[in-house]
Amino acid sequence: MSDGERVDDPIIRIVIAEDQALVRRGATILLSMESDMEVVGQARNGVEAVELAQLLRPDVVLMDLHMPMKGGVAATREITKALPKTQILVLTTLNDDETVFEAVRAGAQAYLLKDASEDELLETIRALRRGESRLTPQIARKVMDQFRRLAMTAPVVQAVAITADGAASGPSKAPDSEPLSDKETKLLELIVEGKTNRQIAVALSLAEGTVKNYISRIMQKLHANTRTELAFLSKRPPRSD
Question: What mean pLDDT is reported for the chain?
Fold first, then answer.
């Protein structure tokens, strides 16, 4: 357990959704060794993942994306819509742009590749409980590259509209968007990395109150309502559904 975790913190209840039995059992053993975590269910496909989440109401669902019967993106969408307090941590081998943005649009709060270290997985689960979003470095670069492309193109910025219940309502147009300053761009990068306001304040030598003001300004410029919207930007056209 990390120094930042107290022994009296509530246990993090986890459901693992993974079609490969060996991976599923290995993750269960790893997480069960942590005193602040408990694996309360295992799902072999997306249908079981949704059913177990609704039955057990876990804090976190460890979600593979390529599963039979119902894929991880569809399962993520259903779970986040029905259970806004349940956080989805995608753990997959898939890192193409299309899959990343589909998972985020569905409501995933964290995205790790299966080559992530054990410590990275454990810290990401704990970060989700603290209300943070986390991306593996490769995925974070994709998000920032996409943001930079948007910043250099037309004055219309489109952000994934992730509502309070975790569902995605599709990109929303932001007419006459004002460009971000260099400091605002750096601060946005730190948000994408999952940094807290305090960590951002230290990194940029700012007061926490100033960081909050910057974040509010960035949200206004990008027409975003939450930190999650700031972290996940896409220029894809709105979905038909």
Answer: 77
- The yes/no answer on whether domain 12-135 falls in CATH 3.40.50.2300 is yes
* Residue from 133, 55, 166 nearest 125 by CA: 133
pTM for this structure?
0.62
Arithmetic mean of pLDDT, 50-58: 96
Share above pLDDT 70 across residues of the chain, in percent, rounded to a whole number: 70
Structure token pair of residue 111: 């995205």
Q: List the one residue out of 120, 106, 65 whose CA is nearest residue 228.
A: 106
165 close to 84: Cβ distance less than 8 angstroms: yes
Tokens read off for 109: 């709060």
160 contact partners, CB below 8 Å, separation of at least 6 = 101, 104, 105, 168, 170, 171, 229, 232, 233, 234
Q: What is the CATH number that goes with domain 139-231?
A: 1.10.10.10
For the chain, state the CA radius of gyration: 18
Cβ neighbours around 62 below 10 Å, total: 27
Task: Report the distance separating Cα 3 and Cα 9, nearest Å.
Answer: 12
The confidence score (pLDDT) of residue 107 equals 85
Domain range summary for the chain, segments of one domain joined by +: 12-135, 139-231
